[in-house]
Every structure is written in C-alpha cells, then in structure tokens.
Amino acid sequence: MATTPPSPSWQRRLLWRLVHAATVVMVLFTVLSMSSTPPTTLGLHSGRLAPCPATPNCVSSLADQADQKVAPFGLDRPVAEAKSVVKAALAALPRTRLVREDDNCLHFEFRSLIFRFVDDVEFHFDQAGRAIHIRSASRVGHSDFGVNRRRVETIRALLPAALQNRPD
Fold it and tell me: For residues 120 and 138, what is the distance between their CA atoms, to the nearest angstrom?
C-alpha cells in the first residue's frame, strides 16, 4: 500500500507553530533584558571589584577560577590619562554607554544587538599595583557563550600597547 505525502495544511500548521514558538522566545528574552537592573555588587568592595558569580557568564582579572580569569591591563601613566584612553577606546564600540565614573573606576553597559541584554563592564585603576583590573559580567542568563571574554580581548586590542598588559 502506498503512503500519501503529508498534506500542505499539515506543513502550514507546523510552520505556524514554529513561528509562534520563536515569537514567544523572542518576547521572553526581550522582557528579561528590559527588566534587568544593575546588580548591587557593582563597584569596589574593600578596594576590589566584586568576584564573579559561580556562573560561566563573567570574567575578571581578579578571578580565582581559571575559566573566569583574564589578564589585567597595564597602568603606565596617571589614572586620569589612562581613564581618558579607555573611554576613548570604548567609544568606538557599538551599544556602549558610560554609566558611572569615580576617581579610580569606570562602569560601562554593553547591550546586545537583538535581545538588548545588558552586560556590565567595570574598570578599577589600581595605581599602587600598576594595573587596570577589569570585570565583565552578564546581568541575566547562565552562559554567555564566551561573549564577555571576547569583549575584554577586543578592548585590549583597542588600547595602546603600553596599556594592553600589566608588566610583571
């Protein structure tokens, strides 16, 4: 007995269900991204940036875990001058906004293109340690698929050679 192929109406229903599911997922992601508020852990705590959470969506130059660790930047000039260089470099990156500037810290927000998720990037200019420490973390979700690590390395590449790595 020969089988008949599925009717076109079956294919249309399947397509409609897939479009509906994709729309629900996009709306959910959009709502999540719009409802995210800055974590209370941002800024310096006892002179250091906050540690990364246990989730794989954060990297820091002060992290203890190897999978969250990135190298700090070098600080070979006065803090005010280094802050100006970092701000100018980040101005070249899309969807980036300077949120807060203190004497020795900068806090930027980066928004993703499609779902508008916010990542917080903080810099601590440590004059005594001759380093610029960085922390880049996603506000929502569990994994960032390496986005924060790639962002830190993109920022590193935008800086002058003397600021790219701390001399040890």
Answer: 6
Q: For 77-161, where are the E strands, in sequence order?
A: 96-101, 105-111, 118-126, 131-138
Domain spans, the chain: 51-164
The closest alpha carbon to 44, from 102, 97, 83, belongs to 102
In the chain, the amino acid numbered 154 is T
CB 159 within 8 A of CB 89: yes
Q: Where does the pLDDT of residue 25 fall: very low under 50, low under 70, confident under 90, or very high at 90 and above?
A: confident
Q: Which fold has domain 51-164?
A: TATA-Binding Protein (3.30.310)
**R_g of the chain, CA atoms, integer Å:** 21
